[in-house]
Amino acid sequence: MTVLVVTGTGTDVGKTVVTAALAALAHDRRHTVAVVKPAQTGVGPGELGDVDLIADLSGIRDVHELTRYPDPLAPEAAARRSGLPPVDLESLAAQVAKLATSRDLVLVEGAGGLLVRYDTGGATLADLARMLRAPVLVVTTAGLGTLNTTALTLEALAHRGLALAGVVIGSWPDSPDLACRSNLTDLEALAGRPLSGALPAGAGLLGQAEFLAAARRSLEPALGGAFDAKDFRARAG
Would you say the pTM of this structure is higher than 0.90? Predict the structure, then answer.
């Protein structure tokens, strides 16, 4: 795949760390990889954003934050409140497509969930994925409540005819409770395929070498790692 869209089932699910893990693994395999953040919200001028964390964790520098809004809201709402222009989805798609002509992989990290609005017309990350004909990787949580939000996201993908690249748990706790352990089976049932990965809690605080090792353990071979869903499920109990 040349372009991979990374979305979450909501906010604070680990999208940025998963995106960094994908970038780190591709970079380690000597692939040229770029990361695009169409809209960064909740970050002021001069402050570090998601692409800065991705660069620090993965070691890549080909990162692109295309729009920034200071309020911690959905992109369309943040643009409206700030008086700044909203994201132009057609222009965005053209920029990503241009990057993809000279990179082995372009990762596009969304804001929030799949159907968060980017402009007043209601354009979403799902629309961008459709325009790019790109598969979508879904990042979700491990615990109670994840099954509903994951099911809704997967249903929205299927309804729009978008390809699912996999489901990854963005932050797997050190001491998983009953819901976390049970959800491993149920998430696979929802996706109709084995889990594509699970990043350990706190991975975003690791140094580059440690992070690369964690990424390799935590993402499946199709994503550049060595994660085995069956083995992970057995070890989780």
Answer: yes
